[in-house]
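Handout, section 3.2

Students often ask what a structure token actually looks like in practice. Rather than define it abstractly, here is a full record for Acidic chitinase. The first block is the sequence as you would receive it.
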Amino acid sequence: IQISWNYNYGPAGRSIGFDGLNAPETVANDPVIAFKTAFWFWMNNVHSIIVSGQGFGPTIRAINGIECNGGNSAAVTARVGYYTQYCQQLGVSPGIN
């Protein structure tokens, strides 16, 4: 999971124990920190959406909010298409959202 901007690096660094604001490259250079950062982002931004049953749409918004706010509607459409195809291949319903 990609994180961006100070509002992610700062809190992630404080939570995990690295200087996310002054040394964000730590995420790229340390595989353990990279994994912990991805897990931090997931648990703080996405997990509750999934376990509460809100659907795939809100999950996309949590991870790629700029795309969902009109920044790249083609990417959103493609992402939903891939998700729908994967669900069909796995024999599961994609849900209503």
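Discussion prompt for tutorial groups: Residues 11 and 61 are 19 Å apart (CA to CA). How would you have guessed this from the sequence alone?
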